[in-house]
Amino acid sequence: MSSSPSPLSDSPSLSSTPLTATSSVSPSPTPPGTGKPWYTIVNSSVELKLFLDTVVRHISLPPKLFSEALRLPPPQSSKIKSPQHLGVLREPELVPPKLFDVPVTIPELYVDAEGVSLSRSGELSILIVHVETASFSHTYLLHVHVLKHRTFNMRSSDGAHTLRSIFQDNRISKVLFDCRMDSDALFGQYGVLLQGVIDLQLMCLAAQGGGRRYLPGLEDCLLNDLEIDSQERALVSQAKSRGRLLWRPKSGGSMQRFNDDPLHEDIINYCVVNAAYLPRLFEAYAGIGNGVSTMAVDRLWESEDASELYDGVHSWRTRILEESKRRAEKALDPEFTGGSAFNPWKPWHMYDDEDDW
Q1: Alpha helices in 11-89 (DSSP H)
Q2: Which of 57, 184, 185, 275 could form a disulfide with 128 if both were Cys (CB 3.0 to 4.6 A apart)?
Q3: How far is CA 140 from CA 48, 54, 190, in A?
Q4: Quick one: DSSP state of residue 155?
Q5: Averaged pLDDT, 245-250
Q6: For residue 74, what are the CA distances in angstroms to 9, 25, 77, 269?
Q7: Are 145 and 42 in contact (CB under 8 A)?
Q8: Residue 314 reports pLDDT greater than 60
């Protein structure tokens, strides 16, 4: 996936001309060499059914459980040397390079939500679903403000699937970045309880060894943890900043811009960036394709026992999955009031006895 064209390659994000339609037929720009649009805006029943049929056709139903798929091979060496520089992940010299390779089908659904004071008491305006498989990559912006309950209750042509059933199936992995407010809005407003969640914010914490005073934001992760060139980095940064100018009140914008019909081009690009890059970010944190898992932490490298390293990496993955589930289910807590913006001080250490991150 990292070799695929940038989601912003031929984006009109640098243009001042807003889109004039929200149909899935024409306004989507086309990445070079593909001949196909890279996003679709869904705001009618017909488009919604086409979206569902596409998802059902392209993703595995159901795929392997993420916790089962991420099994490491048995340790190959008991002599593991520490990295030369703490804080920088290194491949152990005496461990075969495939020790941390993950025999896993990368998750196929990547989700984000935007809205007016996004929460159970706010409004879920746009649901962004990015589908990523070996043969298909596309981002969908579901305009929930227009579609309302049809978003989750419309059935696929075979009658077997709704977006509700897919989101609530814990056998189908959904990757989100800080799922708490998204889940809170989905359940509080539409009764959809996210299951099978993998929270990328937690994967970022794991990759950095935990213990951060502040939870990382998506933009920081995109700009700091992805191997992208300066041009693409500038496009990502500009898409985020121009979108914020439209919707952030303290910048003179309004969250109601997420409800515009048609959506402004800068809002579209802001939403697309929030989801289309998640597969590459997942790969970066999972260490897929580079022979070494970035989820290994410095304290594990100090061990001379490969079995401890093996167990430790599993422990990270177990904790990520368990905490992702707890985060999604905060929507069931009547006292839950917010996510990252409300509780930034959340240090987490690998060897803490407490359950808190």
Answers
A1: 45-58, 66-69
A2: 275
A3: 10, 11, 19
A4: B
A5: 95
A6: 41, 50, 9, 43
A7: no
A8: no
Angstrom distance (rounded) from CA 51 to CA 57: 10
- Could you say which DSSP state residue 345 is in? B
109 contact partners, CB below 8 Å, separation of at least 6: 55, 59, 129, 130, 131, 166, 172, 173, 174, 175
Distance CA 141, CA 40 (A): 6
Q: Indicate the residue type of 14.
A: L
What span, in angstroms and rounded, lies between the C-alpha atoms of 125 and 145? 5
> What's the DSSP call for residue 331?
G
Residue with tokens 């305006």: 125
Q: How many residues does the chain have?
A: 357
Tell me how far the alpha carbon of residue 252 is from its chain's centroid.
28
Q: Are 270 and 240 in contact (CB under 8 A)?
A: yes
Structure token digits, residue 39: 């996003």
Angle at 51 between CA 30 and CA 19, to 5 degrees: 45
Give yes or no for a contact between 77 and 94, defined as CB atoms under 8 angstroms apart.
yes
Q: What is the dihedral of CA 342, 125, 180, 50, to 10 degrees?
A: -160
Q: How are beta strands 123-132 and 39-42 bridged, if at all?
A: unpaired
Q: Best-predicted range by mean pLDDT among 17-21, 70-74, 104-108, 185-189? A: 185-189
Any idea which residue has 């802001």 for tokens? 270
Structure tokens given for 18: 């807003």
Region of residue 59 (phi > 0: left; psi between -120 and 50: alpha; otherwise: beta): beta
Determine if the pTM surpasses 0.85: no
By the 8 A CB rule, do 108 and 59 touch? yes
Given a cut of 70, is residue 30 above it in pLDDT? no
pLDDT digits (tens, 9 = 90+) for 114-134: 999 999 999 999 999 999 998
CA–CA distance, 124 with 278 (Å, rounded to integer): 20
